[in-house]
Structure formats: structure tokens, C-alpha cells
Amino acid sequence: MLEAVANGLLTGAVYGLVALGLTLVYGVLHIINFAHGALLTMAMYAAWVCWAVFGLDPYVAILPLVPIFFAVGYAVQRFVIMPASQGDDNNILLVTLGLSIVLENAMLAIFRSDTLSVQVPYAMEVIEAGPMLLSFPRVVGFGVTLVVALVLFLVLTRTDTGRAMRAVAKERTGAALVGIDVRHVYAVTFAIGCACLAISACLLLPSFYVNPRVGNAFVLVAFTIVVLGGMGSVPGALLGGLFIGVVESLSGLYLGDSLGQLGIFVIFILVLLFRPTGLFGARA
Amino acid sequence: MKDRQLSLILAFAGIAALVPLFVTAGTWLNFAVFTLILCLAAQGWNILGGYSGQYSFGHAAFFGTTAYLTAVLQTRYGISPYAAFAIGIAAAAAVGWVIGFLSFRSGLKGSYFALVTLAFAEVFRVLANASEITGGAAGTLIKLDVRPENFQFASRGTFFWVVLGMVVLAMLLTRALERSRLGAQMVAVRENEDAARALGVDALRVKLAAIALSAAMTGAAGGLYAQYFLYLDATIAYGTWISVEALLAPIVGGAGTVFGPVVGSIVLHSLSEFTKSLVGRIPGIDLVIFGIMLILVVRFPPRNIPGLIRRWRGTK
Hints:
The complex is a heterodimer.
Chain A: H1 2-29, H2 36-54, H3 58-85, H4 89-111, E1 126-129, E2 132-135, H5 136-158, H6 160-170, H7 172-177, H8 182-204, H9 214-229, H10 234-255, H11 257-274
Helix pairs in contact in A: 1-5, 1-8, 1-9, 1-10, 2-3, 2-4, 2-8, 2-9, 3-4, 3-8, 5-6, 5-8, 6-8, 9-10, 9-11, 10-11
Chain B: H1 2-17, H2 19-22, H3 26-51, H4 60-77, H5 81-105, H6 110-130, E1 140-141, H7 156-178, H8 181-191, H9 193-198, H10 203-229, E2 231-232, H11 234-238, H12 240-253, H13 260-279, H14 285-299, H15 305-315
Helix pairs in contact in B: 1-7, 3-7, 3-10, 3-12, 3-13, 4-5, 4-6, 4-10, 5-10, 7-10, 8-10, 12-13, 13-14
């Protein structure tokens, strides 16, 4: 039981990281990015290719993948989502949905539906912490997530780019009036979201598998976290991630694997119906 | 103008009805039936998404409900397939009404509505996958027993006509709706909900009527699917694929029009067959095309194929 909670917390941290990208994009751009899951799948395949083709350890692969996915995210927002959306909510839904369909099925066409995984010596290693046995990749995932969250927090509060992002999130027109390039800020935000995904993918890979649909499993979890933590709230995403990790771990323990996912969806629906601003969020 | 619409519907019905007389190859008829079933699902989505402006990402919830009820009621309880089909459609409408009541009462719209419908469909999928009555992960098989009273026909052509009849019925229903008071209120809610309410339109009631009707149509498609392919599992019945199919065709063909879903599904599925014959059966390639079509249609006004044709004729 205690072990389940601890392992849930560790998994939840990585969920939180996935959700972090989503919530950041929502907070600044006010769009719901349905392609988030497909982009995560893409990042996981990229990390797998790094391992299978270039022999890079997934943790080392973070270094090349973060800039690559930053660039991918920037380009996707600038050249696909922005020109197509024209500011209409329903259009953005459709474009990101279209994007996710294209990415997911392109990966299905390239890698086929086989489930792939990496073999690393530490995948099964455990760390003894008092009475509990904790899986090594999850502990690493937890640690890296905390570091990334800290870096992101510093970027948002201490740099000009971060200030511009917060300004755009609060008051888009005003930000544009004082000379902030809103379109650039949008693209940078989206790029940071994608970079977070690249890190999540590298953290997940040692203990997880990849197939073209793997992102779907995560994206609903991520949406749940984002809604739970309050749309656009960064600390909300992390806390929500930890919470959902524990819920999933416990409902898996008591309900079995097939019904275990149900807990998350039920929470998701209840939160959407009764508290769409999230448990921590203040704005609608 | 309206009479032209009616004659177009009848012309479509007449021409399409000839298909089984000329096309006898099983694979092509299969393709035609499948396309028409998805067209019906799309016509359902069009009522809620196209006319009332509420974009659902979870129409699988309705498709699967009728599909499972049609299959399970006849295999487990020996109810006539036709009665099971009718009960299934009513149940889908009820499910739609309940989902609508919960979400619209909470004021969910836009992306939030899309998300909540997606989540409902996923809940159904997980439940159907785990429950015993639906056959769990192994799925449900309808016993092959070809008799008209079993809703199973010796020739694929007969089934084609049945499905075509439903599609044409849905077109006529949509047309009637378009000309009715309710239809006008739906469009008003889509264009500006606050303004519609200020003019005394009961927006909640209108949206509930829309989602129930929409769910019934998409549900009917699910029942026909079960009856034609005689096999269901949770991923087929409640999978995201059908939610996506249901929304894609109206968007591409023109949402909020009688012909939109029909044009959209025929174009999309012909395109996907064409691609398959061109590059071979690479899994996923047809959906890549669908996705690109979706992005392009949203990216470049006039947003749909009929609009494109109109503009092209206008500039000429």
C-alpha cells in the first residue's frame, strides 16, 4: 500500500511533466492541444531510434532531443497551427486533432504497430528506501522532473522571454502594444511544451514501451491533470500529476489493470462537470 | 431552391440504388456499405456539430451503445434483431440526452465539451472491455444465420439498400429539421448562444434535442455495423476511430448542410481507397491523408469541398 503510493508519486511526477507542456500551452495560447499525445509518441520513437540506431542511452538522448523538439514545436505552431486556426476555438481543435491523426498514423506507417522497448541494464533495478522498494527509472524520472520544473519556474520569472510569456498569457493585446512579438512568444511557448515532452519521453522509455498509440494513453491522463490542476497553472500540473499517479496506482491495486484506468476518467468527468476551473485554478 | 435540394436527394438515392446492380465484386460492395454506414454516423454528428455548433469528440459513445445493444440483446436474450436495433437507437438517444444534460447544464462548450465527450466514450470503452455481458476483450459475435427475419441477407446488395435507405432517411430528416423551428433555433444557438437566449430561445432544450437526435442517428450506424460485420469488440464499438470518422466527413464535406456528411464521407473514403491502391496497404496511410485533408480544409477557406467548387465556378 505504502509502496503503491510511493510508486504512484514517482510515476505521477512524469505525468506531471507531460501535463506541464500541455498546461503551459493552454495558459499562454489558450488552446487545447490535441496533438500533445502524438507529439509524445513521436518523442518516444525518437528516443528509441537514438538507442537502437545510435546506441545512445535514453537519459543521454535528452541532450540532442530537447533542442530538436524545441525546433519541431516552434515550427509546428508557427507554420501549421497558427495559420490554420485564425483564432477560432473550434478550428484549433480540428487542426490539432488533424495533426495528431497525421503524426500517429505516420508513425504507424513507419514503425508498424509492433510494441518496441529499449533494453538498459538499470531498467529493473530497485532502490531500497526504508521498507519500500522503488524502481530506479522512476526515481530518476521524479528527480529530473523536479529539476525541469525548477528551471521552467526560473525561466518564467527571471528571464525576458518568461516575462513576455506571462504578459501574453494575461493580456494579449496589451503585450502586443508594448512591443512583444506575440506570434514569436506563442511559438516559443509551444516549443517549450514540446521540449518538456522530449524529456518525458526519455524518462519514460527505460521502464515503458512504445507503440503508435502509446501517446493516447498519456494524453487523457495529461488532460485530466491539467483540468484538475487548473488550466494553465504550472504548480497545479505538478500536484495534479502526483495526485493522478497515486490514484492510478491505487485503483490498479484494488480494481485490477483493466478497470484501473477508469478511476482517472471518472475523476476527469467529475472535475469537468463540477469544477472546470480545477482544484487549484482560479480562472475559467 | 428547396425543391432543388429535394430532387438532389432523390437523384442521389436513385443513382446510389443502382450501385449493387453494376458492382458485384464483394470487396467493392463491402467498401460501399462501410462508407454508407460511416456516412450515417457522420450525418448524426452533423446535427449536433454542424447545425448546433457543439463539437463532440466522443460520438463513439452512441455508435457503440446501439451496436452492443443490437448484438447483445439478440445473442443473449433472443430478442428479434429489429427490435434490438430499435431499442439500441432509443438507448443511444437516451445516453446522448444524459451526457448532454450533464455537460450543457455545467455550461461546458467548445474544447471543454469536446474533452468531456471524449472522456465519456473512453469510460464506455473501458467498461465494455472489462464487462462480461459484452464479451469483454474477446468481443461479441452474432451468429451467422442468413434469414431476412434475422436482419441478415444472402446478398450484400440487399444490405446496401437497407443502409442506403437509412442514409436517405437521415438526409430527409436533416432537410426537414433545417426548415423547422427547431432547426432555426439550433443555428441561432450555434451562431450566438447569448443572443439566441436573449431572444427567448431555450438554449439548453435546443441543445438537448440536438444531441439526442444526433446520438440516435450515429447509434443507428452502430447497429447497422454490428448487423453487417456480425462482430464487435470494445475498440471497434467505442474506439476513438469512429468519433474521428463521424466528425471528419461533415467538416470536409461542409458542416451544417444536408449533403456535407455524404459528400465528405464519399470523398474521404474514395481518396483513401485510391491511395491504398497507389502505394499498397501500408497501415495508417489512409488516416494520414484524412488528417492532412482536415488540416487543409480548416486552413484554407472556404473550408469545404462544395465551397471550393462554388468558388472555382465563380471565378471562372
